[in-house]
Write a structure and sequence with these properties.
4 copies of one chain form a homotetramer. By secondary structure, chain A is an all-alpha fold. Chain A folds into 2 domains: 41 residues, Homeodomain-like (Arc Repressor Mutant, subunit A, Orthogonal Bundle); 136 residues, Tetracycline Repressor, domain 2, CATH 1.10.357. Chain A is built from 8 helices and no strands. Chain B binds a DNA duplex (21 and 21 nucleotides) through helix 2 and helix 3. Chains A, B, C, D: InterPro entries: DNA-bd_HTH_TetR-type_CS, Homeodomain-like_sf, HTH-type_Tx_Regulator, HTH_TetR, Tet_transcr_reg_TetR-rel_C_sf, YvdT_C.
Chain lengths: 186, 186, 186, 186
DNA sequence: CATGAATGAGAATTCATTCAT
DNA sequence: AATGAATGAATTCTCATTCAT
């Protein structure tokens, strides 16, 4: 692993453990086992590592999505999308929160959408294929809908895992409800 | 305005302008026109102002909700709820983001739900009245639904105002779509 | 002595001892027996103390000039001016060099003249009085001449003390030569 | 241009632009387009470039002096010396200041005279020739006088160009005055 | 209660210098 | 000879916090 990657991985660890405010460059370099000065060869400051962290996370999420989303019908496929996003949210909730917080602190809130774009695109491509296949209504705006779809699933998933520590059972009820809504919507 | 209120208002301004990380107690007291030491008579630290800020925001949001939500039928009422939440999101989006970021940094993420509780309650009370009136399905879980409802509206509204700078026209399309979904869901 | 004065005095000591480049704020505050942070309440940086040091030196030089310059005739008075400037140069040569170096480093070279202005004025006032008294030529431009006079005396004195470590005897030869020149010139 | 020359030229640029204190080896090598480590093959430190810079400047000044100083009589020759020193001062004033500052910082102030020695010698040689020719008084100490001469001209020239941004007209008045003084002195 | 000058621990940052390539 | 990434000691600078007034 090269120095830059070492810094990013270490920064993720430290940020997750201490929160952004309490994290220091000293600790990041210590964990990365590089010299203090080396950090500044790659990044300007603690917060400027954030976009790279976001990138890393989106790549991981995209990987899992493309590996796991599948289905014969649109219903099966959407069901699988919901499952994956619930799983991803569970796994990366802290990291997501972290990035979100990091971006809000640096006036890069606007970048949030840009960072998420590849994920929206993934969903949109699914929709485009299904639309060409006649499985959705003719009037469907795929760009528009990809965001609603992702946003609504994520918002419910977050509420489940981020704040609630809800049971698996409850999660399943939520998932079914969501599936109905989405299928009706498209 | 007493000193404590002056601090809170000033902290909101400074946090919004500089982000939490770059904000300092010095700047907050300067804007509040009080002495450095006075801050510590009221608060322990920069971040300990956060809950008070959240309180202030929720009170403002509740005020606007109870002042403006009304309607003869459930459809009219939900329409009005959607309108208000879109308006509130637009007005308080930065502040919401700020509080959210502040809480994530202090491991108080869990408090997010507690802070939002009064808003959920407001929605829940609407649903309870309408359910007793026979305007919803018998099986409706009002607690459960109040969160889904608030969450989904807010998630769309945020996407509109926080990341998109979307047009009013587009917002209206979104609102209609949301209204249909919610009416169907309850 | 207040904190600012303590910093200035200490800065003079440290700069003289170590040179500007090798001097550190840490050492200045240590010698001044104040806290590190206190320094930054009064000055922005190491070099920003320089103008204040210059002021201090000019005040000292003016004091000695006005205390010691005197004479019945213009010849006696100029002789006394030469003596004093030689003495001052000897005493403050390091400090002068220091300030000069400090100013060249901060693009404030132009301030050099401003700092010296009070000294030039002192000389000019002597000339004005003597001119009114008819002891100089009618066409003498006092402003102009005050600078030539000061400059030439100082230039010789510097060469004596700054680079030469010349003998007292040699210095006296120089002084006599200078006196002749100046009396002739005015 | 070989690496060492590249370093010297680059160092002059950087020192002039940023001042010695704020100049870094990194910037010097960057401007010289050589590697960081290469600097240390030729110089020990930032300040150790200073003597070489001084050498370069003195060579340039001597060149211009020997190219341009000429005259049938001693009056013409001194006039030409004054002109050249004024011109040189104008051209190299920043560089001179820089070297002077650099030397003061390294306790090599004493080297100043050594660096200037070739210039003093140039003047002294002129005086020796003229003295042998009977154009000066018999008692003239040429070594002694070469320094006074150079010093007084330079001191006035500096005051003109370094601090004053004076007009060409004023400069000419000064030059005439100086010429009279010098001719009388020798 | 209120003040604000002073503190000093600790974080950010720089930069001369090295050394494996 | 030349390179330039990496180093880490040294410094600057910040800022929460205190306390005498």
């Amino acid at each position: 692993m090269n120095k830059e990657e070492r810094i990013i991985e270490s920064a993720i660890d430290v940020f997750l453990e201490k929160g952004i405010e309490k994290s220091t460059v000293s600790e990041i370099v210590k964990k990365a086992e590089i010299a203090q000065g080396t950090f500044y060869l790659y990044f300007d400051s603690k917060l400027s590592v954030m976009p790279k962290i976001a990138e890393v996370m989106v790549v991981k999420m995209l990987n899992e999505l493309s590996k796991n989303v599948s289905g014969e019908t649109i219903e099966e496929e959407i069901k699988s999308v919901i499952d994956i996003i619930f799983t991803l949210t569970k796994e990366y909730k802290s990291l997501t929160t972290l990035i979100y917080a990091g971006l809000t602190q640096t006036q890069y809130v606007g970048d949030w959408e840009k960072i998420y774009a590849p994920l929206y695109h993934f969903i949109e491509n699914l929709l485009i294929v299904r639309k060409e296949n006649g499985e959705t209504r003719e009037t469907l705006n795929t760009t528009f809908t990809s965001k609603i779809l992702f946003g609504s699933i994520e918002s419910v998933a977050e509420q489940m895992y981020l704040y609630d520590d809800s049971s698996e059972e409850k999660a399943n009820e939520y998932k079914e409800e969501l599936l109905k809504f989405i299928l009706h919507g498209i």
